[in-house]
Amino acid sequence: MNENGSANAGQSYKYIVIPGKTLFVAALFFLLLGCFAFFFSDIFLIWLLTGAGLIPFIIIDLMVLLLLTDRLQTEREISSSLAQNESVQVKLIIRRSGYWLAKSIRLYDLYPDSMSTSVFPAKICMLTNERKKFNASGTIVFEYDITPEQRGPWFFSGTEIMLGSFLYFWKLRVTHGTISSGRTYPDFKQMARGIDLKGNPDKGDVRQIRRRGQGMEFESLRDYQEGDSIRSIDWRATSRNRRLDGSPKLIVRNYQEEQDQQILFIVDSGYRLPDIQFDSALEAMLLLSYVALKHGDSVAAASFGKRDLWIPPRKGMSAYAGLMNGLYDLHSAPVPSSPFSAIENALNHLHRRSFIILISNFREEDGEWLLWILPRINRRHMLLMVSFSENEAEKLALGDTQARPETDHKSDEEILLAAAAYSYLANRRRLYRKWEHSGLLVLETTPSHISSALINKYLSVKKSGKL
Q1: What is 13-185's CATH superfamily?
Q2: What are the DSSP calls for 182-227, one per residue?
Q3: Which fold would CATH assign to domain 260-464?
Q4: What are the tens digits of pLDDT across the range 246-287?
Q5: pTM of the model
Q6: CATH 2.60.40.10 in the chain, residues?
């Protein structure tokens, strides 16, 4: 297999002979004729001659199919690196090497279950009408689009060609070992433009924080420009510089955001994050990793729950490929997960001050475990607790005012459910306020807004100089 995921024509073959429709019809006719011959002796001779006449044709048709029919050769070309839910083109190249073509040809491309296509609803492509192209060039190319729907490794198990005999008595199923494999990554198209996004942060959009004169790390001196803050003027440098007319020349200090800081992502792959929320969290991690690496920071990643994973911190854009390869096949599952253990393991791995971003769904009972480890966190690191909004609980607590007029009376069960949902949300927000008072950062967002919300929080932290 070459780099673009194609499989060469020199593959193995498997053959299976299958009776055709014509053989079933002939056998049924012969059986009915035999039933009549059992009751009418005059038909017995006709039945006997019919059988004797059919058998040679059936045998000859099979021999021609097995010995003289071209088996064809197949080759598939597909990129080995795909993006989730992004359509990609598959190219099938079918070549002939013999003289005789089968009467009918059907192609079955055995694509993985993690992909879907509208062109191959039953994985069938009729090639019978392409005989003229085969005879002219000996090669035919068939292209179709396929969409990878799940992240992770994928594998094309082969290609099947169904060849029909000339009298349609038999079919020969030829399985080609046309193997292709690769990986499906999260949709990374928006990664390249993640640092350039702008918008309203209150609506979940990404904002850009002005860098000139607003960072914490001194970069250089430059001439004063209109709009610069008076606080940024370097009076010593100004006193040493004069214009040609003798007037003072204002010099300001130019600052930049501090670089070479360390970001650690910890994502919950257990029961707390369902598939939709987990996929959104993973895409947000990768997008923010891209932004952080662009800002000169180093990035590490870890997971807990279904799979315990640790990707050590690295900096530079080359580290992004390592993050993608380490996280692309990570999925959540309904298994127990402990944020407390994840934080403890992370602290044992970290040797310098880090910005830890823990993504999970936190409950009221999570408040106790954090008290035990909070002193270790506040002493050396900064922790951001990211949780998803409970939309269903909010609907129960607030009620569906559009579907139900205010004049309608609620049943006792609805009132109890609304009260329970309201109490649950109130306790949850009380826990978040308690964490914030303890010096932690808390972010509650929705799956659709988590990427932009995380980027805004990261940029705000860098601007504040708290790292």
Answers
A1: Immunoglobulins (2.60.40.10)
A2: EEEE---GGGGGGGG----GGGT---PPP-TTTSSEEEEEEE--TT
A3: Rossmann fold (3.40.50)
A4: 677 777 766 555 557 899 999 999 999 988 899 999 989 999
A5: 0.72
A6: 13-185
